[in-house]
Amino acid sequence: MDVVSDAISAVHLGHPWFHRVRTSGSWCARLDPYDGAGFHVVLKGHCWLLADGSAPVSLGVGDAVLLPHGTGHVIADSPVDAAVMAQKAAPFERWLAETGPRARPDRDWTEMLCGKYWLDCSRMHPLMAELPEVVHLPSRVGSHLELRAAIDLLAGELDEMRPGSCVALPSLLDLLLIYMIRAWMTEARSGAWPRALGDPVTAAALRALHSNPAAPWSNDRLAAEAGVSRPTLARRFTALVGRPPMAYLTWWRVIRAATLLRDTQETLATIADRVGYGSPYALSHAFQREFGITPGRYRAQAAGQPADVETN
Coil, strand, or helix at residue 238? Predict the structure, then answer.
């Protein structure tokens, strides 16, 4: 896979939770911090978002906002400060239950798609970790056409529940996450990972490593893949990614192993072979160095079993 796909797949858990919200008049709701990434898409009307420690953000029709680190925040019909927020904001779940569907929208109607992506933050790829607390993606004609199309498709599925909508909606929401991250990378004025993936040498090396992490990579082989000398690759890769190519590969192999331990029933020997380790022992040693526990205990914890249970 490519870097962005791998970065998302490594932490993504299950289907996103989402809810269509319709409201009008004066309202203010708070979502407390949580493990995962929150999102809001404004389908009709207008609202404000105030993330903890940030300035209010105005959201209009077609705007999308991603809170990739589960930052606590308030959404409201008008800008609010911290003092007002503490007194006025209702817990989101209670507000959601009280709002409910309404038969006749008025002129001041606001409609949003609000939800959360469940993430395993223990294995966060640095690309995901580098995302800012709030990623605001305003609707602009001709900008981020894929993101606009995903929002339009979501609105269409919500307006009319067609056959297959129960499968289509979670899939479209997963696409929405990808398109929001892509849009951030396009718009980013700083950050190591937009620069790394924009550098042809580093991007070629990352693409090779992520396409086949189990291959017997060496600095010389990777430099040849990127079409540069070994010193050039080492200099550019380390400067942009933050670690040398082989160190990054070692880290990524262990992260891939953790994903396979969580999501499959494959044996440790099979997983070791799939991620590029010559034996289960070699993988176990590297895994303990990174996570502080054995692969078996990690798998048991991921499955919700007691901490003293260890599986193969």
Answer: helix
Nearest to 40 by CA among 132, 170, 136: 136
pLDDT tens per residue across span 236-255? 999 999 999 999 999 999 99
* Residue 270 token pair: 């099979």
For residue 122, what are the CA distances in angstroms to 63, 155, 290?
A: 30, 33, 11
Q: Is the pLDDT of residue 180 over 60?
A: yes
In three-state secondary structure terms, 119 is: strand
Average pLDDT over residues 102-116: 76
- Got the DSSP string for 45-106? S-EEEEETTS--EEE-TT-EEEETT---EEEESS---HHHHHHHPEEHHHHHHHH---SS--
The pLDDT > 90 percentage for the chain reads: 56
Token digits of residue 60? 């209009």
Helix (H) or strand (E) holding 255: helix 245-263
255 Cα distance to chain centroid: 16
Helix/strand/coil for 279: coil
User: CB within 8 A of 56, min separation 6: which ones?
Assistant: 48, 49, 50, 79, 80
Number of H helices and E strands in the chain, helices first, is 14, 10
Report how far apart, in Å, the C-alpha atoms of 157 and of each of 38, 118, 125, 160, 173 are.
20, 22, 32, 5, 11
- Average per-residue pLDDT for the chain: 88
**Strand pairing category for 135-137 and 64-67:** antiparallel
The band of 127, judged by pLDDT with boundaries at 50, 70 and 90, is: very high
What percent of the chain clears pLDDT 70, i.e. is strictly above it?
93
Specify the residue for token string 């817990």. 91
Give the single-character DSSP code of 143. S
pTM of the model: 0.85
